Amino acid sequence: MRILKYFLIFLVIFIVFVVIYFSWSSISDFVLIEPREPIVGRLPTSNQTTEEPRNEKTKEQMVLRVLSQGEVFDYWVTRNPSASPSSSTKVTADKQNDIYYLSNKGKVMKIESTQEIALIYESILEPNKIISNPNIQKIVVSSGEGVDKEWAILDPLSNSWTYLPEDTESATWSPDGKRVAYARSSGDIYVRNIRDSSASPSSSAKATADRQNDKQTEIKLINLNQIDGDIFWNKPNSLDIISKPTNYAPSTWIRLDITNKNAEVMQSGPAGLILNWSPDKKMALELNVQNFSGILNIIDENGDLIQELSFLTMPQKCGWAPDVLFCAIPRDLKTRTRYPEDYLQNGFFSADDVFKFNLKTGEVVQIWSKEEEALDFWNMKVVENRLLFVNRFDGKLYSLSF
Known about the structure:
There is one protein chain. The chain has 402 residues and is mainly β. It has a domain at 39-68 and 311-402. The chain is built from 4 helices and 28 strands. It has a 7-stranded antiparallel β-sheet with strand order 15-16-17-18-19-20-21, with no helix packed on it. A 5-stranded mixed β-sheet has the order 1-25-24-23-22, with no helix packed on it.
């Protein structure tokens, strides 16, 4: 009996040993995996550009839309008068601004939701420049070449024209849109008050009569002997005169005090100067050329450097918003690209990606990049929650909602 008891104990121990042995053999066939670091989001540093993390809903909100049916020479955006605080009419966010454009065929069009409305009776032949002000619907138009070149103030809502002198070389709106300053070939700079006109369409006979030179208040401001450049009225009491951009000659930026008639040289030296001012005119994107290489900076209202940017694009490819700068940056820049001539003379086209720069934190986020969508952004404006721009590949006006 005792022998049987010992045998059973031995048998149990043997079976347990066999089970443990084969179990350990099976476990040893698995590979031990070390625990990984948890994957967490990291904000980009100031010198990084990363795609903005977003869910599928966010992606759907990035909507690209073609606004114009035909090719656009240029466009402008004005505040909708009915959206003013004093108005009793309730206006949705998308209706707080009116969008107009001048087609390559010289037609002035207004974009209304999904349709376009032609505003003037006759076409503007050979347009070469328009100057707008966000406070008013009127524009200054330059058209024609040589002896046929002319400058006029156009009110597209009333179909009325006011011609500027034949030897006008450059023009600009005052910040409030109530006056126009223009420079003549003699070096004289004049200021003209602009009268209000009815918003109702005028008859063809009245439109023809309005094309005569208007006898409005006109004041000679100063004579500078010769003006080789464009004038800009960014501050109520000063005019900026900037030479036309080229990388073959030094640029000059002169600020003229309207009150005391003093002139101050703001910049003289680097070539290819182009400025894109923020809406409040306290900062500007500055492009200049040194040793045939473009440099892009953010400067203050007095031309002093705020920040040198590590990327390169044309200032017209950027749009300002409060504390944010949106820029379209070419994916592939040719090393032999001449700044700014090749861009301004359509000698170079680029497929762009869009980045958002937080001017307070320095954060840089890529918000748009699609290989199948070749977009060459030009004349970018931030309007409500949209980026408006002309796509130079097809010449049409687009919006990119975000």
